[in-house]
Structure formats: structure tokens, C-alpha cells
Amino acid sequence: MRHITTHDAPATGLRGIGDTSWHTRGTCHGMDVEDAEAVFFPGPRDHEEIAEAKELCGWCPVRRECLDFALENVLKEGVWAGMTEAERRPLHDNLHQRLDYRRVTAFFQGRNVHLTEAERQVVIDHAYVRGWRPDRLAAALQISHKHARDVLRQAANKVLDRDRNYGVPRPKKKRKKTSKAKDIPTPTAPGTQQPASRPAASAPAHAALGKAA
């Protein structure tokens, strides 16, 4: 589920796997170890410590990175990103269903980001549409070549079933521009009369060749 990070990949604002550089920008950075232990790992009834932790997290600029770190590393104890254990429990239970398209985009940009099962399936579908070969997908997701071939075949069957049930969308036909008729009279100002066209005088069929004898 990982992609080798390239040095020229654009930044997306998402934390990469194993990246802890965001720690230094946290509000809790530099706190005494014992104080941090008491504030961010309180008991379920230590309401004052919980309120203090939430207040500190409210000013923190890296709350999203903190929450992602706790979810992706299954850290169910303590206060992370201003959320207690009970508040994070639904997020832990439904993490496999998270679908963040920013992560899918970051994956195709070469970022080494965490992907859930739902995000991984979207990556596979888009990889098939982009024409990826099994060896490329296997290296990107770090799976076997056979597994990559099987999931690409499943993605192809999904597209085939979709086209069979809903039809293949046809491109819209462009309307041809109708050319204006050449014999359309030009409009005239009201009150003016157009000159009547005179019929052309026909020439005599035969001219006189001479006097009769």
C-alpha cells in the first residue's frame, strides 16, 4: 500500500508514512514529559486535565496530522488532536471506510501516504483506467505481481459491467453551421421602395438579310 516517494513530487500537505517532522510545530512540543503525561493521558474522570488538553489542542496548527498519526498507528489511548479515546473510537472503527481523494491524488503524485481499503480500491480502479501494467501496480502497492494482475482484472470487469448495464456514453455531435443563402435580399429602410427589375429585352431572332426581289 505504499508508493516510493520521489524527490520531485509536489507537496500535498498530507503526512507521509513515518514522517514525524510535524511534531516540532505542535503546541505540545517542548512540554515537560511528566506534565505532558498528566495532561494528554488523563483518566476518564479527570475532567480538568481533559479540558486543559482540549484547550492546548485548539491552538495547535497540526491537529490534522496529529489525528491521522493516532488513527494510522492505532493509538487509542490519550488525547490526540483534542479528541479523547471515546471520541476517536468511531474513527478507529471506521478507518477502513475513509475515502479521502487528496490521498489518492497524492499517491499518483508519488507521495508515500497511508491508504485505507476504500482509498486503495479507488487507486486500483484509476490505475486500470490510466493503463497501468501489473508490474507497475505491484511495485506501487508493494503486492505480488499475481495479486496486481488479479485486481486489475477485477477493475476491468467492473468497467465492463458498468458499460453493459448503463451503456457507453457517446460523444456529442457538433452541429454544422448552416450557410446563408446567397439570394436573400438585403433589408431596406422602411418607407423606401426598391426599383422594379425590368425584364431584359430580347433581341430579334433573325436580322433582315436584304431586299426582296
UniProtKB/TrEMBL annotation:
Principal location: cytoplasm
The UniProt record lists the keyword Disulfide bond: yes
Function: Acts as a transcriptional regulator. Probably redox-responsive. The apo- but not holo-form probably binds DNA.
Biased composition (Basic residues): 170-179
Cofactor(s) the protein needs: [4Fe-4S] cluster
Name of the molecule in the record: Transcriptional regulator WhiB
Domain of life the protein comes from: Bacteria
Localization of this protein: Cytoplasm
Free-text remark on how the cofactor is bound: Binds 1 [4Fe-4S] cluster per subunit. Following nitrosylation of the [4Fe-4S] cluster binds 1 [4Fe-8(NO)] cluster per subunit.
